[in-house]
From TrEMBL:
InterPro entries: CASTOR/POLLUX/SYM8-like (IPR044849), CASTOR/POLLUX/SYM8_dom (IPR010420), NAD(P)-bd_dom_sf (IPR036291), RCK_N (IPR003148). It is found in: Nucleus membrane. Pfam families: Castor_Poll_mid, Slo-like_RCK. This is Ion channel CASTOR-like isoform X2. Keywords: Ion channel, Ion transport, Membrane, Nucleus, Transmembrane, Transmembrane helix, Transport. It is a multi-pass membrane protein. It comes from Prunus yedoensis var. nudiflora. Coiled coil: none annotated. The chain crosses the membrane at residues 44-63, 102-122, 154-174.
Amino acid sequence: MLCFQEHISKLEFTLRAYNLSDSMELISSFGQQSDLHSKSLKRLALVVSLTLLSMPVLAFKYIDYVSRSRSSENISEEVSLNKQLAYRVDLFLSVHPYSKPLALLVATLLLICLGGLALFGVKDDSLAECLWLSWTYVADSGNHTDSEKIGERLVSVSISFGGMLIFAMMLGLVSDAISEKFDSLRKGRSKVVEQNHTLILGWSDKLGSLLNQLAIANESLGGGIVVVMAERDKEEMELDIAKMEFNFKGTSVICRSGSPLILADLKKVSVSKARAIIVLAEDGNADQSDARALRTVLSLTGVKEGLRGHIVVELSDLDNEVLVKLVGGDLVETVVAHDVIGRLMIQCARQPGLAQIWEDILGFENCEFYIKRWSQLDGMHFEDVLISYPDAIPCGIKVASLGGKIILNPDDSYVLQEGDEVLVIAEDDDTYAPAPLPTVKEASFIHIARTARKPQKILLCGWRRDIDDMLVVLDAFLAPGSELWMFNEVAEKEREKKLIDGGLDISRLVNITLVNREGNAVIRRHLESLPLQSFDSILILADESVEDSAIQADSRSLATLLLIRDIQAKRLPMVTHVQRGSFSQGSWIGEMQQASDKSVIISEILDPRTKNLLSMSRISDYVLSNELVSMALAMVAEDRQINDVLEELFAEEGNELQIRQADLYLREGEELSFYEVLLRARQRREVMIGYRLADAERAVINPPSKSERRRWSVKDVFVVIAEKE
């Protein structure tokens, strides 16, 4: 029994040894199979990565082959395959803004995946570890230095080389994006994020004066924002503005490149949030300039967000004003530059010295028009309102019961009602306020009848496109029997045709007789054929042939002025008088100054620099065209209601600025306050706004210390607003 058990134990031991041997053989067999499978998988990964890497090359080669084969078969109507592919890629990159970064991201992921597969084929690491190593090689080309095997080094170097290309393209994209952004800022393509700003559309010679006036107007507010948009390079605009020699007084000027005819460009300058929009007339042909202004108004009215402010349009021809107002409606205020200057020249020819007064009133440097409501004045007569402002001159009423109509120089008996506003001339809108009525002594009135209008002899040198409108205004202003001599290079027959085409019926001119003379105003012998010493007034116009160039037009006007004055000085008798300024009696300027005392010459000046020459010599009362138009544009932009005031002051009927001799109101040496003289003027239905002393160069508008008495001379003159004679 014992032997049997031992035999069984041996058999069990033998069986266990046999089973263990079989297990080891099975494990060894499975390990060998697993290694074979891993190696085959790595080989497959390496083959797949190489295949994927070579597929783009093969595809490009195939496309090139197909394109060549098609071209060899003369299939001209079909576009080659490679061109179609290039077009599709170009279209994708141009249509989709983020296509380039997206393509770079896809290329980076492909490089990491292909590199990971290739590493998995040459290394013993897992696929996840190989993908991570591939990313490190892409991000840092120095991470492959610890590779030992040849295969690992080749793959890692290839991945690192691809990574360098990826990061080079990434740097290129970033650099291009930054350069494009800076270029966009430099060229003025970014949007203006402002509101309640003044927007100027266009560019012309008037821009400098306009910016100066807007800067002065905003000075009391600490400065404002002015945005200029024109079809010019932003850097050029900023450079030209920097060259302007005036102080912006805290006002910021922002330039943008763009077209006012494109809604996207208008939105770029926040047109819907601007408090005023000024459309400048282009230099050049008047009809083309006004046509462009009309298209600009159409674009502005098409803004979906609507406009917060009003539109001030500068026009070149009066005939186009009706069309622009028809298109713009209540949003538009127009300033017809040629018409304003023509009427102003006529007024200045009749009243020497008026140009300086208009400069003071239109410009923001001194006193200008303001409209404001004062409830404490309700129920007061206008006569009392006149002396209620120590620092302003009331000259009109905005009547609420008449729909806001402005009445200049109203009756003394008019009583201010609730809602009425007072039109005044003051230094600024915050420098005046009504005060208790002062005690004004009633001064006896000297009734001196004004002399009746006498026929005048006036010479027009030059030709303007709106000269027919000037003739109509002259016929309304001048006394019957007056003569108007027209001297220019336009042939007489062509001259009559142009006047008729302009809408002028010569037979309806009742007060003036036209005398036509043909000649060149800068040739002395042509001028000497005229009786220059016999004219009461001479108007030198910026000739139509050179008005596109301010310097040429001013040079021509200045040459004509000097020639006329020299001819007058030779023909007029020499009179000994006190020398004027620093020029001696015997000098050529002294002789011309003597001639200037005998007749009035009004020169239309376009360039402000010419102003200094004329003001220094004192041989002409000048009109500074561009600057006065800029002043009017700025004033209407600040308050559109002022345009109604200016239109009446320039019109043939209604009220106008006039210069009166002092002997109409006082005696020689009489001592009166300004308020007392003002009340005497009211008896003539006039609003007195200032004076000019006999020994003074400039008039004083809205004088201070109006209650202070002073001694006057009959050689003094007063500036009034009165009905046209």
